[in-house]
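Why do we bother with holo predictions? Because pocket geometry can differ from the apo form. Keep that in mind while you read this record for cytidine-5'-triphosphate.
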Amino acid sequence: MSRIVLGVSAGIAAYKAAALVRLFGESGHEVEVVPTPASLNFVGVATWEALSGRPVHTEVFADAAQVNHVRIGREADLVLVAPATADLMARAAAGLADDLLTNVLLTARCPVVFAPAMHTEMWLHPATQHNVATLRSRGVVVLDPGVGRLTGPDSGPGRLPEPEDLAATACSLVENPTLSTALAARDLTGRHVLVSAGGTREALDPVRFLGNSSSGRMGVALARAAVARGASVTLVAANLAVPSPAAVEVVDVSSAAELADAMRQAAPAADVIVMAAAVADFAPDHPQQAKIKKDGDQPLDLKLTQTPDVLAELVGSARSDQVIVGFAAETAAGPDELIALGTAKRARKGCQVLVANNVSAGAVFGAATNQGYILSQSAPPQQFSGSKLAVAHEILDAAVAIRERED
Ligand code: CTP
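The structure, written out:
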């Protein structure tokens, strides 16, 4: 079991951090909450103790026999500060140790994540931006705040990122601590990432369609991972079964033809394109305008024609500096066959990276985890297994490696 320390500083968004304690508990992590003294104005000790099931202190001299200011940081597998106020980040950047949380930040050697939340003016102030840059240069992951409604009538950048997004990022860091380097460096800053996600639906008539089992979770995880690494992201979303993440431009589509149009339009602006959507290979020739009726006991003949291969088309018109990632859903007998099928598909489609999944017996679709191989034009097959967000980061690592080689 991993131990997550949840630091809470004095912002109104502290009440949202309560949801994080529950989300971490549901993911099987132990949570120790360390609020700053001022944050107790928003959420009190009793709430944190009840939710985490552990004693909660704010000061170094409380329960001194436990030497909490050293123990908590040393035992942590991850420290997440949510919300992180301008004041807390200023104290952390200066290396101050004037309460228990800032002591913990000095003793922790695990990944540290700050989720800032404050008014837009405070976030954009040069002092805050300087402190954020200082923390990032030390390997601390400082996430961008969400954009939207703030306290009172204002809106702008400064919202705490959604607890589900924070929990997913934190859990992927617990799974793979080396990720904090890419997240702290924000290695996709200034890059545009285009992701297709979900499964297309081909209408047979106004009420029926031919579809597939893709939930869109993998594509959504890729969008979320790219945002966390500083990219601007467009998500072409086909019938998602999960909410799309905040801070991405979402283009909703349904059929393969609509998806193809949206991808063609968005592709020229993209540095990295990931085709995670499960696109129908065949669509009805002529969808019926009225509902298809039974005709006695006659069987129904459907004539289907092939849809355009979007991935191959994008590869055909790609600029030399674009990296294109495809997916392959294969029903393979084992790893060797999966690698062979995926390698052949990567060569056929012409993309630099192909992510090969074994979907025998419905595995992968709709699941929170994924396993398979990343097949890159310039590296040996790389096996992966883990949460879709952790896998998304591995896929982006492969794309970044190709980009860097070409730059
Ligand atoms: N794809 C696409 N356009 C299609 C079908 C698939 O862009 N009309 C993309 C998918 O998004 C995925 C990749 O191609 O990134 C491979 O999809 P997959 O269904 O595994 O392969 P197919 O192209 O259908 O090839 P085959 O039928 O030979 O398995």
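The first strand starts at residue 3 and ends at 8.
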